[in-house]
Structures are given as C-alpha cells and as structure tokens.
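Ticket closed. Logging final result for Phospholipid/glycerol acyltransferase domain-containing protein.
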Amino acid sequence: MSSGKGGELIPSSSELDLDRPNIEDYLPSGSSIHEPLGKLRLCDLLDISPTLTEAAGAIVDDSFTQCFKSNPPEPWNWNVYLFPLWCCGVVIRYLILFPVRVIVLTVGWIIFLSCFIPVHLLLKGHDKLQKNMERALVELICSFFVASWTGVINYHGPRPSMRPKQVFVANHTSMIDFIILEQMSSFAVIMQKHPGWVGLLQSTILESVGCIWFNRTEAKDRETVTKKLREHSQGVDNNPLLIFPEGTCVNNQYSVMFKKGAFELGCTICPIAIKYNKIFVDAFWNSRKQSFTMHLLQLMTSWAVVCDVWYLEPQNLRPDETPIEFAERVRDIISVRAGLKKVPWDGYLKYSRPSPKHREQKQQSFAESVLRRLEEN
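Final structure:
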C-alpha cells in the first residue's frame, strides 16, 4: 500500500481482489523498462520456472491480504459414502431449519415493533422509563436474531455493568459481533454508517440506545465522532460504549492495528475477545463481496453459529504509556485470549490502493532488484 501527495491514501474506484493476487500486476509492462537486447527478463523466468513463480506469488500474497480472506473448508462429501448424507443435510438446512428460522425472526420482529413503537412514541417525557424499556427491547430483538442462527454463545467473565468513564473494545469479525454482545448487555456502539435496511435500523431503532455512526470517507465526521465519544463516556446513565478499534472486519484468524481514538478518552478500557468456531459456518463478513443480507442468509442456512465471548480484566493507561502503546497492549490481551495472530497492518488500507504511477515505480524497482540478484549469481 502507498500514499499520494500529502501522505493521503488514494481510494480506488474498483474493488481490490484480496482473495486472488495477480502476479502480472506486479511485473513491469514492456514500456516501463527498456531491456537491452539479449537480456533475460523477469517475466521470462516466471514462464519457465514454476518455483520462481510460486515464490513471486508468495511475495504478492502477503500477510495483509490473508487478514481478509474467507477460507472455505476442505470438501469432504465427494465420495459414494458421504454424498448421500451431505444431500440429506442440505435438505434439512434449507427446507426445514431455514423456514423455521424465518418464522422465529418474523415473530420476533412483530413482537419487537408492536412494543417498541408505542414505547418510543407514548413515553416521551418519561426519559428514564423509556430508555430502560427500549434497552430491553433491543436486547430482545438481538436474542431473536441469535436464535435464527441457532446461536450457541458461551459467555465467560462478569456481565458488563453501566458505569461512567469506561469503554469496551473488541476484535471485529462481522456486524453480528454487535448483535451477539447486545443480547447480553445493552451497548452503545460506534459503527460505520451503512446503506439500505441496515442504515434504516441504525438511524431509528439503534439510535435509541445511544449508538454513534460515522462515515470513514468524511474527515469532518471524525472530529464530530471524537467529541460525541467524550461526551457519551462521561454520562452516568448512558449505555456502556462499545468500540471495534480495528475499524474493519477481519477474518477471526488475525488481528490488525487498533485505532488509538478509544484509548485517548481517559477511560477504563474493558477488553472483549470474540472467537467463532468455523466447524459449522465461517462468521467472517467480507463486505466487499457480500451484502449483509446475503451474510445473514448464509448464517440462517448453516447448522449453527458457535462462538465464545470473554469479558477480560479492565485496563487503564499507565503513567509511562502513550495511547498507541496502550492500544497495542490491549490488542495483545485480546489476541492471546482469542488465539489471533497479530499483524502490523492498518485495516483502513483495505479501502485504499496506491496510485498507478507509484505502483509502476514499485513494479520497476522490484523487477530490477530481482534481475540484479540473478546477474550477480
């Protein structure tokens, strides 16, 4: 990844193919390097050497792209003994479990809306009672969502309490992280603003529990959000604040750098570690390749969502510690508990790519260095 003028990352108009890096993109074009006649070129070596091709692919397919890959399970059903069992499983999941789960979620929404709308409209002026009832109803609908996936969630540690000057931070795999945590205790979350029906829920129902939304492309939003975070964390009656400091969904195998914003508020940080069991379904949401609606359908047509949640020991900023060091220390705690591999990448690089000119210069430099080493040997 690289930066343009002023050090700003240059957003791409097209999506990065994170799952399938193309080696040819990292090779110089014919017009970018003028080789003397008779010289051996890198592209020729890649054509004749499978080993060198594999090595170049390993360079391209680095630890950054691995953080955002969906790793499908190994196929197990393509033999005469197991294929009939697999077919039976498909019938059960799609024709029995899925309709039942749709009914459960529909009933949940009917109950929720029939209670939430009167509470929201008729209890204005009774702030404390209204807040308590809305919190309970949001927890209820989240429980229906978890039930629609046949969620098996194991919570470890004391249940979060409502206190001022405390912030909960967790690793981030999918938007369902919020649903799983919300059904246990009502949180106010800071989250990217989404379009469609998810955005409608954000701007209506979830704002009732004090959630804060941002747009990562708007610089002014960052200043506003920082101000709202400070105000919210000081409130005695506000819901506990939940932040996903990675800033993007990671595939529950790695942990990318934590943003320091949550660690500059002067609050007690309460780490939460979330680990999904992939034996039944991969809960990672690749938002570049899948809408959230399709992600929910994938969960509802799986056998179950199995997950462990650990509420870890609260942490405070040490006298000789910077906010960045504090963020790294908390990331260490979460990564160890959830069994995640730490990588030194900023998750926001997922949404940007280098300019064509800079990328061509890097390609040329890479090719020249490889050719130089080959000539020396």
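Strands lie at 151-156, 166-170, 188-192, 212-214, 241-243, 254-255, 268-277, 305-311, 341-342. No further action required.
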